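Structure tokens please, single chain.
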Amino acid sequence: MAVLIQLRDAFKRFGDQVLLDGANASLVEDVKIGFVGRNGAGKSTLLRILLGEEEVEKGEVIHHPNLRIGYLRQHDPFQEGESALDFLMRDSGAPDWRCGQVAGQFELKGDYLEGPVKALSGGWQTRVKLAALLLHDPNLLMLDEPTNFLDLRTQILLEHFLRDFGKAALIVSHDRAFLKATCSQTLELAKGQLTMYPGKINDFLEFRDERREHDRRVNATVIAKQKQLKQFIDKNRANASTASQARSKAKQLEKLQTVELEVDEPTVNIRAPRVQPRQGTAVRCEQLAIGYPDNRVAEDISLEIEHGQRAAIVGDNGQGKTTMLRTLVRSLEPLDGRMKWGHGIEIGTYAQHVYTTLDERQTILEHLEYSSDPDTTRQDVLAMAGALLFRDEAIHKKIKVLSGGERARVCMASLLLGTANVLVLDEPGNHLDVETVEALADALQQYKGTVIFTSHDRHFMAQVATNVIEVRDGRVRNYFGSYDTYCDAVEKEVSEGERQRNAAAGTSAGSSGGAKSSGKNDRKQHKDQRKTGKELKSLERKIAKLDDEKKELNEQLLTETKPNEAVRLHEQIKGIEVELSEAEEKWMELSDF
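Here you go.
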């Protein structure tokens, strides 16, 4: 397999921090790699280096001459007033039929395709950006936290897209379930070194834990041996009869001291608020309606959440999950109906509208000490701050100088150090790395209070949730199944939609006659569909080639000054247009356009 990008002996610093320290890595064609590392390790910097947007201080980055990178950027590339289709055509130069076909893979149609793209939610805009990437025919995708703010349905669509994308990908994500579903190898950046593991994220994490445990045992053995040798030397070096033995032991001790052992990353330890368990109903909703004066999001909501439950709020983006959470914490008043919390409830909230209102005059340490349980020690505060990546001098930073992500982590730390017996969490895993999300999940599982939360991280949801509440089509109701069951149901819906879109020529299974096709007919139909699919792909390649030829000839015609040559170019263009029209008509017939 061809090496698309090779990083050789790369060094890179950011201030006093060493991000790359003689790092080496190779990205090869057709391999999808999950890229992991602690927050601040330098993952985004490495992506910019691979893209050519930043330089290494030493070493080299070698690009294959045929490398075509598709990079999912976080910034907004859309122009005011343009539709998703307009953007795709402008960005790729592809014709509308091709843009519409690729957009269909991400369920972009109707108003989502033809309405103002800036009016779409972040998740739908991400779908538009992904369609744009595909239209450029990249052979290496680079995706930086692609699942942030994507609902489950869009995550599954993205997984299916990556599964069918037969080329290379480098994916930065803290979502273990997503990496497991999409990547066959794992790349870790830690302490300036890149380590490629030839396996999925779960296998890699297990291997890394085993390796660290081995290092701890080796360290313990070395320390014990050092102590034993030092005692012998101190006891015997002054004695003439044993002085030579002491010198020999000193040489052994010196060798042990020069052995370099891997030092573990700081361990993430998170504790939830210490509360007494309670019984009965935590909150009851009766005939509740939620939303805004000009937008009734959901109504006729009747449900109860019991003390000790960890209720996951699920549903597609735009259905009203955050509206439901805001109503529960009374940041929004109900439009109708009744909501009542149980006696002795203290609610702790983690959401954007909370962590953007922190007192900017305080330092991180001052805020955490002010917010914490009276029984909390200074060591507890420092340990929680360290777990959320505020270590050493960072703990004395003023809140006014912190980024949005840093403020979010401060809010999480203060919430977990507090006394709330109900936690309402909107996307608690955002801004946290894999290890910290895992530690937070463990803490919430041990928590004696009640948790009501929503998250786009499926591994986190499956670990934490004890019950599921679905927000869908203007209703909020208990989902009678586990979170894994809910994921399976959405997976089936997405797969069925893809089957319907991809069906071309020939009848689908279970047609209106209701008669079951024989095995022979099923095989013939499958064979016909595969044949049709191959013809469609061949036509798409032909159309793309003809489009390129036509574009090139038009550019030549614009600059041609010789009349005879201009006539020849014009005739060539007309011939290509005829051929192009025939190919597009054939494509439309085969795809049942």
